[in-house]
Amino acid sequence: MSRRWRPLRVAGSIVLLAIVISFLPAGTLRAALAQSSPTVLIGSLGVFLLCHLAAAFKWRMLMGREMNLPFMKALQAHFTGLVGNLSPLGMIGGDVVRAGVAINDSGRPAAIVVTSIVDRMVDTAALVVLTFIGFIWMGGGSAAVASILWGSLALVAAGVAGSVAVIAFLKRSSNPRLASVRSASQVLLEQPGLVATALLLSVLIQGVLLSMNAYMGSIVGVHASYAAWFVTWPAAKLIAYIPIGIAGIGIRESALVALLRPFGGLPGPVMAASLLWDAVIIGGAIAGWLVLCVLPGLRPTRLRRFSAS
User: pTM for this structure?
Assistant: First the structure.
């Protein structure tokens, strides 16, 4: 990502948040935030860290047993990527940072890049699975529910189509420089059970994160059903892939405020729950990264070398 675009991404998050907050009824956001407590935030932080411990395990599992990358180094790369998500590079940039740290420790760049792409696809598919569960749970009769589901499917279909096109290109290309990428892709294609296991694990991880968000929402006064969270939270997270702000901040909150409104979620409490979750994301990413940087046997990682382009 070019340096000149990074301030625009930061500005995008700030402007989106400012616009949504400006339309909230006076005092509702502050009143909702006041209902939270340090205990809720600490508990949410613990859940976040455990979920990302499992997410790092999933990513390392997809690499296969042949990969010379200890789990603790994969975990350090994962949390470094989470910190990278918080930079103007955004979520895709965070994946690049994570892969870059892992490549330094493994020496097999093609396998790690392919695995990282597949891991992102698996997480995206898991979000659609959760949306579909919510669709079934709510009976599928609501036009709002149906539109969210079809919108999510359209986003995933576009991603799948792009991935298939890339895989087809790699298979047909005779460029020797792409031989290692083709080989790594073939290894994953020949192990559908491994990818299916990763998908199941991702659904469980995202389901726990969703539940934590729904719980925090209930604490600050979001009166929406649990099923409604299944429909809206994954969809808001998918929308946050759009590269406008940093780490989806701004666009995710705006989307969740709009999506939960038809299901009884008032904008003030929804925004409060979203901002509290942003605090958990930022605090969890930085805390996990700092801890892993000082553990014996793990050398410190630097983000600058992966974000200079």
Answer: 0.81
